[in-house]
Design brief:
Layout lengths: L14 H9 L6 H8 L6 H7 L11 E9 L2 E8 L5 H13 L5 E4 L3 E9 L4 H10 L1 H11 L1 H5 L3 E11 L4 E9 L6 H19 L2 E7 L7 E9 H4 L2 H16 L1 H21 L4 H12 L9 E5 L3 E9 L8 H4 L1 H10 L4 H24 L3 H28 L4
Antiparallel strand pairs: 1-2, 3-8, 4-6, 4-7, 5-6, 8-10, 9-10
The structure holds (R)-mevalonate.
The site of (R)-mevalonate has 9 residues, from helix 11 and helix 15.
Length: 400
Amino acid sequence: MSWTSRIARFYERPLAERLRLIAESGLLSPRSRQHLQRGGGLPVEVADRMSENVLATHGLPLSVALNFRVNGRDVLVPMAVEEPSVVAAASHAARLVRLSGGFWGEASEPCMTAQIQLDAVPDPHEAARRLHAARTRLLHAADEAIPSMVARGGGARDLEVRVLDAEQGWLVVHLYVDVRDAMGANVVDEVAEAVGPVVRAIAGGRLGFRILSNLPLRRMVRVHAVVSADALGGEELADGVARGSRFAELDPFRAVTHNKGVMNGIDAVAVACGQDWRAIEAGAHGYAALNGRYAPLARWTRTPEGVRGELEMPLAVGIVGGSTRVSPAVRAALELVRPADARELAVVIAAAGLATNLAALRALAGEGIQRGHMRLHRRRQALEHAESESAGDRATGSGS
Ligand code: MEV
């Protein structure tokens, strides 16, 4: 490996030099390098093909979080986020975690959930039995709808039937589809629509919605990390991080804020890498509330040496299709992460979430969140001041 994610005093260097240092990693293709050197973003012609009624593009800073080591590999973690301090927080926490070896994690097989819903089914429990008996036929019908996914090694893997309301004959069939390196929404919707009439023919009743579920419980990611009390700044801070995590377990009001801190990292990487962050958010909060009480996605416990953190959540991300194909900035971001497959991207994204969560808990257990925020806020104000001065210069013609 000719590069490292640990680059000293990176944040102090001018932007062009930062870009040069990142390009020196050799991870970026010449095309991506040029794209970033020209300021990045999305060409308006591409934007015009991506959405409707397009007027222009809308920008966000594209940054890189440093110090990440994930499953023994250094990773430069791209982040697109407007909130100051998210990137600094992630990099700082990743530096502490790195001292004990970095983040470790795994993602399950990339199985998405297709839902086929029926109502007015006569005797839904008996219909469920017939559907289970027709499992092979249903999985085959699903595979027939997505031949190119099957050719890529994906396809239908399992089926589940849930009776939602026996009296009214409400029933839903879940088809679990391995979507390989895709995020998979289109593939799964295709399956749901194709298999719906077959399900209806077996179960009877009225065919209702046929679409993916954004709570993909068979597409989970788990990451963990340990940090020594020394690295955190002392035993008191280690206690404080664990107590902060316990607070989130006891109180949904705190758990939401705690999870917001997790999603600061997750969303920032997801946006940079062109992922459907609304789907990720919906799944995350659905999972957090799955047991009927909103809970923290990440938990930190005290160990004799310091703290251990774990994050578990559903995470549907892809490295093919969608904006990964058309957006040059997304291409550049994925080149930096260089995930072997969608599962590896999920682990890196989750590591970023655990990092921003740790940074928040550590700050809250110590000096509070405002001091760090205010430092960065002052930097931004200085920038705004400099920009308004130069705009003033331009308006009066005094700039050079
Ligand atoms: C701010 O964007 C996120 C935090 O509020 C998260 C937290 O409180 O854990 C700092």
